[in-house]
Amino acid sequence: MLTREGIVRVLADAGMDVVGEAADAEGLLRAVAIEKPDCAVVDIRMPPTNTDEGIVAAQRIRELYPGVGVLVLSQYVEPGFAMRLLEDNPERFGYLLKERVRDPAILVDALRRLADGETVVDPAIVSRLLARRREADPVEELTSRERDVLALVAEGLSNREIGRRLFITERTVEAHVKQIFATLRIGQAPETNRRVLAVLAFLRSSARG
After folding, report:
1. pTM value surpassing 0.70
2. What fold is seen in the domain 133-207?
């Protein structure tokens, strides 16, 4: 309850409209059905059993309301849950650790990205997946620098932000992203969709380790 109230205050202070609150998965699904929000913030573990109710509710929201972004919050790094939700429909999905949203700017930025159709994955999960052994697949064909760029794309960073992080120009980032699309055999599509598909390929590859 305290976490929920804190999130509500942060979003309200950022000028966002909080149209509903829920203490359990049933209440969450009811609120989404009534309000049709731009995004739903979901705890990965919800009453009554605090096991996978949040995951099940998130999947249900994505099935019934594909236009609603879903931001899942977790206390721990659980890559399997993230992949479970990303497999079928990665657009408008985010997965962040609760400690990350202590920074209001990160929470607000994530929700805005989801509303724009992007995918946001916590850097800790990206790091965990990167550390795993990967089998041979298109991602293995990427250079070290291209893999660095793709990891930051997975975190939801723009080309300009990636350039600042890696100390390279935005044009260089654009060239790397273009090559990543070609290597991963991602054809012509809107830029946002191509980035999401690249992120999904990266996460699938990493999760195989």
Report:
1. no
2. Arc Repressor Mutant, subunit A (1.10.10)
